[in-house]
Amino acid sequence: MGGVHATARIGARGDGRGGTSLPVLESDGPLALRRTRGAASEARVMLVGAMSGPLGGDRFAVEADVGGGARLRVGSAAATIALPGQTKEGARYEVRLTVADRGELHWLPEPLISAKGSDLSVVTRVDLDAGARLVLREEQVLGRMREEPGRLGSRLVVRIAGRVVLDQELTCGPGAPGGWDGPAVLAGHRAVGQLLLARPEFAERPMEPRIFAEHACVMPLAGPAALVTAVAPDGLRLRRVLDEALAEWDIR
Amino acid sequence: MTRAALLVLADGRFPAGGHAHSGGAEAAVKAGRITGAADLEAFCRGRLHTAGLVAAALAAAAAAGADPAGLDVAADARTPSPALRTTSRRLGRQLMRAARATWPDGELDAVARRFPKGAHQPVVLGLAARAAGLGPTDAAYCAVYESVGGPATAVVRLLSLDPFEATAVLARLAPELDRVADRAVTSATAVRTEGVDVLPAASAPLLEIGAEVHAAWPVRLFAS
């Protein structure tokens, strides 16, 4: 009763002519990767599996490794929905991203939705060289329409040139530490999201802190990166806020 | 070691500048998220299990002798809001001044020299506890109590809340303070073998966002 164990891998390399090749594109079980049409210098990959999982007991992992001079954009075809499994054990979803100097990764998956009775821990670990560029989006929606959420734990750890610039965890739903839905943490909001932007030029000129919606702000981190944190009543309104930030940075 | 030193360090009248800070309560009151004792309790509970746990683990690790510079980087990574980082360093500097005068200590002097603009407050708190002859558990208790005591006192002023009610909130939270302090000490103990990544990183999105909103106000009663 161990659940499904699957690891999908993407490796992107600069082809030396300004383009990006994908020497590694490994789907695994429910995690299916498809290369889609990209822009001139950028490879695009769509994660098409895992929409109706992970279930309790499942262990999913997705790894992307972007080499120097490569540009990779990864999206997903639909939201990932954490559902209750037949085991008491929780599910685990790990994302491991590495980007080398002069590499660029846009990691823009669809939201993660925590359905009633589910129990999922998501861990995202990002390792960037000093000259790497990254745009990362994370959205968590607590419950489907008017549904109580399951337990959802998420941790995001970002290292740049070996130094941790962001380490954040959030646990929501039944069994989470007290106060998660109270006025200090989510105050009844059902969607929470982050955008992380890492660029080497922020070392010289960091982004200015700014409030740009009722519950959303841009925060320069203690390192060459900035974080947008937003909470919203639902997933649609969260996406609208995060899209606004992406548009302002000219990222589509 | 003397138990009374813990009372000196944990006393709200210890001259370290904490009374000027609401721990995010002022922003939450203004936004209508705290209107009475029940909201105050939920606010304090959320703060305790996030910022309070992280601060307590950092303080306990510093009190146990972990490298303050490594802990300071860990505190930065766990504090995405620049307003909160600035506040934490300012409070760290004020606490450092008070602690050095109270418990003269070579380690405190060295950290003060290394961080002229202030190290993060929980790190200094742990070092102050160490200088006072206290241990990691004492430092964790100071931090968890501070994480709820500050907002409770501030809300009494902000909402003219009955001080008896605010104190009852703190008393009801006491068993949870015990559990959080215990968790903090357990992870702080693991730092020696596993490094600072083992420290908890629990975050509170509305505390971070609220701190940024609050820092942009032209007029406010509390500094944070």
UniProtKB/TrEMBL annotation, chain A:
Residues 1-27 are annotated as: Disordered. Residues 1-11 have a biased composition (Low complexity). One of its GO terms (cellular component) is cytoplasm. GO terms for molecular function: nickel cation binding. Keywords: Chaperone, Cytoplasm, Nickel insertion. It is found in: Cytoplasm. Its main location: cytoplasm. Pfam families: UreD. InterPro entries: UreD. Required for maturation of urease via the functional incorporation of the urease nickel metallocenter. Belongs to the UreD family. UreD, UreF and UreG form a complex that acts as a GTP-hydrolysis-dependent molecular chaperone, activating the urease apoprotein by helping to assemble the nickel containing metallocenter of UreC. The UreE protein probably delivers the nickel. This is Urease accessory protein UreD. The gene is ureD.
UniProtKB/TrEMBL annotation, chain B:
It is found in: Cytoplasm. The lineage of its organism: Bacteria, Bacillati, Actinomycetota, Actinomycetes, Kitasatosporales. It comes from the Bacteria. Keywords: Chaperone, Cytoplasm, Nickel insertion. GO terms for cellular component: cytoplasm. Required for maturation of urease via the functional incorporation of the urease nickel metallocenter. This is Urease accessory protein UreF. The keyword Chaperone applies. It comes from Streptomyces humidus. Gene3D superfamilies: Urease accessory protein UreF (1.10.4190.10). InterPro entries: UreF, UreF_sf. GO terms for molecular function: nickel cation binding. Belongs to the UreF family. UreD, UreF and UreG form a complex that acts as a GTP-hydrolysis-dependent molecular chaperone, activating the urease apoprotein by helping to assemble the nickel containing metallocenter of UreC. The UreE protein probably delivers the nickel. The keyword NADP does not apply. The gene is ureF.
